[in-house]
Design goal:
heterodimer, A: 113 residues, mainly beta, four-stranded antiparallel β-sheet, 50% strand, B: 115 residues, six-stranded mixed β-sheet, 0% helix, globular
């Protein structure tokens, strides 16, 4: 049981490049979400999904897209990277939603130059 | 505007003593709170939670106290151990769009337990 896995662990992009951060969970959780953590800030919700085929925007969705074609996978796409997207990104999953225990991946540290 | 506030960025205590981490919230309608613990280069992990129908919840060395009138909760760690050194986040589910909820986090408190 691997829990929540994220790849890559580190990534450096140039402004304007695109990339996909991968997230997968093997716990059959319906709810998955992406957060970003910036220095001195708490985690902020980017996008979330309540099940396969259903996604919605969080509090800071601009510049990011998501899809949920399977229960297991929830990739986050940066469309055209900007320095403001330099952050640590965490994927999380849970059975029911925000009130349920969230299981977090180890994070992806992204730097945009 | 922060709905969940942790006003102490850091806390340092001696091994064996009590650690008290504080969290304030803005909305008296919030009815459930969680604490997450985060080690460097790892994702947060769930530590303990409390519902507003209780004023205390205990799990081993960890106890969370809720003071609804003050809109304040605190996490007590007794006795503190060096392995408790981590960043602790207070969080609460709050109403979001379309009848959904989202989890809002405080900025975190970095706890250092000195041997």
């Amino acid at each position: 049981n691997a829990g929540v896995t994220q790849t890559p662990k580190f990534q450096v992009l140039k402004t304007g490049q695109s990339m996909t951060l991968q997230c997968a969970q093997d716990m059959n959780h319906e709810y998955m979400s992406w957060y970003r953590q910036d220095p001195g800030m708490g985690l902020r919700l980017i996008h979330y999904s309540v099940g396969a085929g259903i996604t919605d925007q969080g509090e800071v969705p601009n510049g990011y897209n998501v899809s949920r074609s399977t229960t297991e996978d929830f990739p986050l796409r940066l469309l055209s990277a900007a320095p403001s997207q330099t952050s640590v990104y965490f994927c999380a999953s849970s059975y029911l939603g925000p009130t349920d225990t969230q299981y977090f991946g180890p994070g992806t540290r992204l730097t945009v130059l | 505007d922060q709905q969940v506030k942790q006003n102490s960025p850091s806390l340092s205590v001696q091994e064996g003593r009590i650690s008290i981490l504080n969290c304030d919230y803005t909305n008296s309608m919030f009815d459930y709170f969680l604490w997450y613990k985060k080690y460097p280069a790892e994702g947060p992990t769930f530590l303990i939670s409390i519902s507003s129908i209780k004023d205390k919840n205990e799990d081993g060395r960890f106890t969370v106290f809720l003071n609804k009138s003050a809109k304040h909760l605190s996490l007590h760690i007794v006795p503190s151990q060096p392995g408790d050194s981590a960043v602790y986040f207070c969080a609460a589910p709050v109403p979001f769009q379309g009848g959904s909820e989202k989890l809002v986090f405080g900025k975190g408190t970095k706890l250092t337990v000195n041997p």
